[in-house]
Design brief:
Elements (H helix, E strand, L loop, with lengths): L9 H23 L13 H22 L7 H18 L7 H10 L7 H4 L13 H9 L9 H36 L5 H8 L15 H22 L9 E6 L4 E6 L2 H8 L3 H24 L16 H21 L1 H11 L15 H22 L3 H25 L10 H9 L1 H4 L3 H7 L1 H4 L6 H11 L10 H28 L6 H20 L6 H23 L7 H6 L3 H23 L1 H32 L11
Antiparallel strand pairs: 1-2
Length: 645
């Protein structure tokens, strides 16, 4: 990929900013107004890749035709634009944008004599963290009278306070990811399946259209999900149109649970790109956990512990096993990278200059000290909010374990739709007990749900994939990329906040997305009040499960590193119990089976020839989601989404 000019120029950044704003607005309107498909919810956002698709196949070729390449974009400039959209999407919707304001407004609005939030929660929340005046929060959920102004002033201090915290948090995240990039990308050479499609979309061939879009097999793959999605959408308009059935449940284990068969075209496409042992391990361990859950249901084995609703679908035994496995997964990986980390440390303190950081978006010295100083700031902010220092320390440690671990899982597995087995706030309470955590820190742990709990996307994953894509930039300095990413994050935060404020106060939050404004905002405080009303000591069973998960993971990683023939990848065990994998295992299995046959009977050439088809499956589904969202908006049709998972 030849570079004739720096991709970090005014034209590129301006276009990336416009597209990032467009994606954020599209995503908010899709879920909150049209009640349609989720466009910015995953590690590869459907709306983002569709906008980029239009830029690559239509807008940029037209610019080349009319301007003779004077104002068109080079391949690297297109990729810079994509990384901006990708990073923006990580905070535009489920990652933060749709959670932020509703969770802050929920305690005062949803407080009742029965749940006692006014007595148990609100006194422990600082006034600079959230508005507590019901005259401010009630219109947020019910809508303002016609002509009444939006109370921006009441929100100014909380938004400013949280804005500083969130920008610091995401800067720290970028520093941590940048320190690990060289090991993951250059030494271990992780596959990064999610980075392959955008790169393929800009690879030039003869003429003005990228090679991928000249492939007939690509368009065959593209058409399949478009047809299926269109039939699903048209049924709402014309009931005579048959609905394609891509989902079924089979009762198992005395009908105590279901085995889910769901065909997800994007997951089928992404799973085709990953290593066979990774794909096999993900669906294999998911079925193992299915059997384990079935055994628990039949025998009555359970735990009364409340770990919330996220990750392993609220099953405390599986959540704690998954947490133990995640901790070892991350620590073992860091141990294998210890030489690199030692060199980074020596470079940061000025005692060694051998390691080269010229290809990084930020120097190792800046990344190291940014990480340290940033973490100290985050600890101070949480302490000022009312969280005990030791609780804040363990919470941040757990949060980064899940973020970094999940980033690595996505980088190897290509699962665009994925969450961790548990969340940090739940594990702090489980590990130490709500009695020890205390009534002052518990409400603060509930508020952390804004940025660390209900997330199917987050900046660490987007930043790491962006840095992988930046390999294609050649010898151009990547230092401007840090500021580009921070700009993209700021756009996601600012635009989503403004849009949510306007939509909530003009239409009433309870008339927008049910989960983001009704179920989701109440989840953290229900969890907090349960622990405040029923304080517990640490869970012994929880620690047994965490230790068991840690031992199994250590064994799997040890065998993986010592025995070349060992077939089970540890990655599968880390997420095998996650509810999303319960829904996706069949698509992963199909991709594994197809790829196995192609490699066995056609060899690597057959696999490479099949790639465009599976790229088409991904782009076809995401394109159908956006196109039908637009059609539904024009026809005032709601709840007719064609893509969720």
């Amino acid at each position: 990929m030849e570079i004739t000019r720096s991709p970090f120029n005014t034209k590129t950044i301006l276009t990336g900013s416009i597209m990032s704003i467009l994606l954020t607005v599209m995503a908010q309107f899709s879920v909150n107004i049209v009640h349609d498909s989720y466009l910015a919810i995953d590690h590869m956002p459907a709306g983002g890749i569709f906008i980029f698709f239009l830029l690559a196949i239509l807008i940029n070729p037209l610019l080349r035709f009319f301007s003779r390449d004077k104002v068109s974009f080079s391949a690297t400039e297109l990729l810079v634009i994509y990384t901006m959209v990708l990073v923006t999407a990580s905070v535009a919707e489920m990652g933060l944008g749709c959670q932020f304001l509703p969770i802050l407004a929920a305690p005062s609005y949803y407080a009742t004599p029965q749940n006692q939030w006014a007595e148990l929660i609100l006194p422990h929340i600082k006034p600079w963290m959230m508005p507590k005046d019901i005259s401010v929060t009630a219109p947020f959920f019910e809508g303002l009278p016609k002509g009444a102004p939006i109370p921006w002033g009441a929100w100014a201090l909380p938004i400013f306070s949280w804005g500083i915290f969130l920008m610091a948090l995401y800067f720290v995240t970028i520093c941590a990811v940048s320190i690990l990039r060289k090991e993951w990308v250059e030494r271990e050479r992780l596959s990064f399946p999610l980075a392959q499609l955008p790169v393929a979309m800009v690879q030039a061939g003869r003429g003005r259209i990228p090679n991928l879009f000249k492939s007939k097999i690509f368009w065959l793959g593209f058409v399949i999900p478009v047809v299926f999605s269109s039939l699903l959408a048209l049924h709402r308009y014309f009931p005579i149109v048959p609905i394609p059935n891509l989902y079924t449940r089979v009762p198992v284990f005395r009908q105590t649970m279901d085995l889910i068969f769901r065909l997800s075209f994007p997951i089928l496409g992404f799973s085709y790109l990953i290593n066979l042992d990774v794909a096999f391990s993900v669906w294999f361990f998911n079925l193992i956990f299915l059997v384990f859950k079935g055994w628990m249901n039949i025998t009555g084995v359970s735990s009364p512990e409340n770990v919330g609703i996220y990750g392993a679908a609220g099953n405390p035994i599986l959540a704690n096993i998954g947490t133990g496995s995640f901790i070892v997964f991350v620590l073992f990986s860091l141990f294998l990278e210890r030489r690199h980390l030692k060199e980074v440390f020596r470079k940061a303190i000025g005692r060694g200059g051998e390691i080269d950081d010229s290809k990084e978006i930020v120097s190792y010295k800046t990344a190291f000290w940014g990480l340290i100083i940033g973490l100290l700031f985050l600890l101070g902010w949480l302490a000022a909010a009312g969280m005990s220092i030791w609780v804040a320390l363990f919470f941040l440690a757990g949060a980064f374990v899940f973020w970094i671990g999940l980033t690595r899982v996505v980088a190897e597995s290509g699962l665009a739709t994925l969450v961790g087995p548990s969340i940090s706030s739940a594990q702090v309470v489980s590990g130490f007990g709500s009695k020890v955590v205390g009534p002052e820190s518990l409400p603060q742990l509930g508020v952390t749900y804004i940025y660390s709990s209900d997330i199917r996307t987050f900046p660490a994953s987007s930043v790491m994939h962006s840095e992988k894509i930046a390999e294609k930039f050649g010898k151009v300095s990547l230092r401007p990329m840090l500021w580009v990413m921070l700009l993209a994050i700021f756009i996601g935060l600012a635009v989503s906040t403004i849009v949510i404020m306007k939509l909530a106060y003009t239409k009433g939050g309870i008339n927008l997305d049910d989960w983001y404004f009704i179920g989701g905002p109440q989840a953290p405080y229900n969890w907090v009040t349960d622990h405040l009303k029923n304080p517990i000591t640490f869970s012994k069973l929880g620690w047994v499960c965490r230790i068991a998960g840690a031992v199994i993971m250590f064994t799997l990683m040890f065998l993986r590193n010592r025995l070349i023939w060992w077939p089970l990848h540890p990655l599968g065990f880390t997420v095998g119990m996650v509810w999303l994998v319960d829904n996706l295992w069949f698509s992963i299995f199909l991709a594994w089976f197809i790829k196995t046959l192609l490699l066995r009977y056609g060899g690597p050439k057959a696999y490479e020839n099949g790639k465009p088809f599976f790229f088409g499956l991904i782009l076809g589904q995401y394109s159908a989601a956006v196109i039908w969202c637009f059609i539904n908006f024009l026809t005032h049709t709601t709840k007719n989404g064609v893509f969720w998972i």
